Amino acid sequence: MRSTLCICEPATGAVEELLRTNRLIEAPNWMPDGTSLIVNGDGRMFRVSLAAAELVALDTGHAVKCNNDHGISPDGSLLAISDSTDTGQSCIWVLPAAGGTPRRITAKVPSWWHGWSPDGRTLAYVGRRDGAFGIYTIGVDGGAEQHIVSGGGHYDGPDYSPDGAWIWFNSDRGGSMDLWRIPVSGGTPEQMTDDERVNWFPHPSPDGRAVLYLSYEPGTEGHPRDRDVELRLLDPADGSVRTLLALFGGQGTINVPCWSPDARRFAFVRYGRSKD
After folding, report:
1. Cα gap 206→161, rounded to integer Å
2. What CATH class has 67-257?
3. Per-residue pLDDT tens for 155-210?
């Protein structure tokens, strides 16, 4: 099978296989009511019920080139997608979580969604402006984007801490790809990992006790798919790191927020090797 949608319980290390498919699917989000997941595949969006696991297509209107940067609002009413149908480059749109007509949020492209503020009013995303990557925020109704941080390398994966005080992200601004965080109003970024691994996509748990992230082998360039990777947990209180799983994955495994609302589990995708 090309893709296996899985659920992990960090406390025990137990992994449940929810769905196997020959389709390339990516980037699970967990619905706030805890009953289903959202994934993307082949430019479309799908819901997967935990009770009866199958891919059920969501109506995204004209937006049929969705990438793996998408997520659900904290109240479960809205879905943010990143889609290139109209613009030729990734642009952020919002639509009803049950499906419907998308509403454009970002005027500037490319923009890749990555996080909702806990109050549901603000989106955090990656933008490339004048050739440089940076972290930006914008209101859920659109308007002017707010520049949070950029300069000196690549920036990706912004996600809010559950108290709304911090935006976590990954960047090679320090020379290698590591996890960072910055106050939501901007300021001086704080480096949160510093090792030989190539670390991407930090996702704070809803209880604030851990940050899940994707860790590549040393020397990896970018965030490719079909690599031997690890899923790790960082304790933001003391900086300690625990490796949960080693798997074949990478791009598409946990690009976006994927924790269950009770912080007891998270969803991820692993991929089959060509010889499988």
Report:
1. 8
2. mainly beta
3. 999 999 999 999 999 999 999 999 999 999 999 999 999 999 999 999 999 999 99
